[in-house]
Amino acid sequence: MLGEKIRNLRRERGMSLKDVAEKTGLTSSFLSQVERDLADPSITSLRKIAEALDIPIFYFLLNHEDHSPVVRKNERKVLRFPRSHLTYELLSPDLNRKMEVMMARLEPGAVSCDEPLAHPGEECIVVLEGVMEIDIGGEVYRLEEGDSIYYYASIPHKLWSVGDKDLVFISAITPPQF
């Protein structure tokens, strides 16, 4: 379970709930509920928790015994957030590489995150279906099927699905962030 993985990592790092709360801006009581699987963190909250624990977000979903370089379409690690319209599928076999590749799906009219996020490294996105608008440092770009964008991920960014069908895109990020 997600909560158990978070609790185990926190304890391995010798951190209290208060320590994680201070690093994330989340309350200790909320973090306690997450660890006991009584509350589901949003994508923004889970990213903050992962950052505080110094771990990629997808770590929480990976089977660390898998070492195959092949990722079968029906065996991808999938990350869905409650009350979110965004789904991620990890296309790379694990996060022990210098790059991660994932496919994301965002419902029409939905946004990737509440506030623009920044992380170290570089990112390249290719739109497979739908229409994306992406704000990178206050400049908005519109991408349609087949378009791609490459940017420094340290610049705060946020994206929207602006078409009338799901936005599906591939994202390659280095170094791995999820």
Task: Provide a concise account of the structure shown.
The chain is an alpha+beta fold. It has two domains: 54 residues, lambda repressor-like DNA-binding domains (434 Repressor (Amino-terminal Domain), Orthogonal Bundle); 109 residues, Jelly Rolls (Sandwich). The chain is 21% helix and 29% strand.
Structure explained in plain terms:
The protein has 178 residues and is of the alpha+beta class. The chain folds into two domains: 2-55, 434 Repressor (Amino-terminal Domain); 66-174, Jelly Rolls, CATH 2.60.120.10. It is 21% helix and 29% strand. It contains four helices and nine strands, in the order H-H-H-H-E-E-E-E-E-E-E-E-E. It has a six-stranded antiparallel beta sheet, with no helix packed on it. A hairpin with a 2-residue loop joins strand 5 (132-136) and strand 6 (139-143). Helix 2 packs across helix 3. The mean pLDDT is 88. It comes from Neomoorella humiferrea. One of its GO terms (molecular function) is DNA binding. InterPro entries: Cro/C1-type_HTH, Cupin_2, Lambda_DNA-bd_dom_sf, RmlC-like_jellyroll, RmlC_Cupin_sf, TransReg_Diox_bact_type. It holds the Pfam family Cupin_2. Residues 6-60 form the HTH cro/C1-type domain.
